[in-house]
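S.,

As promised, the manganese (II) ion run. Input:
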Amino acid sequence: MNSYLSISEEVRQALSEGKPVVALESTIISHGMPYPQNVETALRVEQTIRDNGAVPATIAIIGGKLKAGCTKEEIEYLGKKGQAVIKASRRDLPVLIARREDGATTVTTTMMIAAMAGIRVFATGGIGGVHRGAETTMDISADLEELAQTPVMVICAGAKSILDLGLTLEYLETKGVPVIGYQTEELPAFYTRKSGFSVDYRIDSPKELAEAFKAKLDLGLKGGMLVTNPIPEQYSMPADVINKAIDEAVAEANRLGIHGKQTTPFLLAKIKDLTGGDSLDSNIQLVLNNARLAAKTAAELANLLK
Ligand code: PSU
Ligand code: MN
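Predicted complex:
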């Protein structure tokens, strides 16, 4: 393997024994939530994965090393450093690594490092996609290209309607990425269970998710699979409240001319300000929900690949 990759002892052992491992991203820690909730959540998510029979591998770049499996101290470090950690997508890796810097991994770089380490299942909150207005800005997240080329199953709660969800689905279709609804026919929209858009397939059990992903691997098809898992009913937010906040955030970003890698973090922070603690609580709960499903699915996949 490459000399930049550093797999923790626990993760290395689990992988060598064919045990289930679930990757977790670090942008959600340093950019997605405030301290100390970010660290508390990251550790709770890891515990939830253990409770459901898998080994967690929080992924990040620390001192130029691609880490698959962070210690509690490393998670604490990333959480405290917060926004000062560089948000690292695919294009950021060469310079960050050469300079031995820290980086918070997005869905893109978490998938890349998971794949390098041999991890097949990854749980997160929301993915990046085609932004509203992309027909003129061309703002399309690198996450979609990564889903098109890297063989990792990404379990998320859908995508926020800061994105153009219809165009995001069109893009994934073009790139050959299956979009699965877990126990739903409708694409969930992160804070809400419904978006008005259909997924490609509904799958109702972790075993069937694992079977579909194994078939993809067996066929030698490149790219990942996107599993969208709706936020539990009791934590979902009223659609009008969240959509109003999203519209306001998008309008302000346009007014201020926010662009490039700042766009997504700006919108997420703005929505959090506008909705107070409610959206943070929902965010935490949906990540825990995805961690449970990911651990169960990783366990089924480990069985199938034995
Ligand atoms: N969307 C969310 N929450 C997030 C992100 C996106 O609802 O935390 C983060 C993820 O790390 C994702 C990244 O991979 O933002 C996408 O950023 P961009 O749109 O700049 O590609
Ligand atoms: Mn972008």
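The chain has a mean pLDDT of 97. The chain has 13 helices and eleven strands.

- D.
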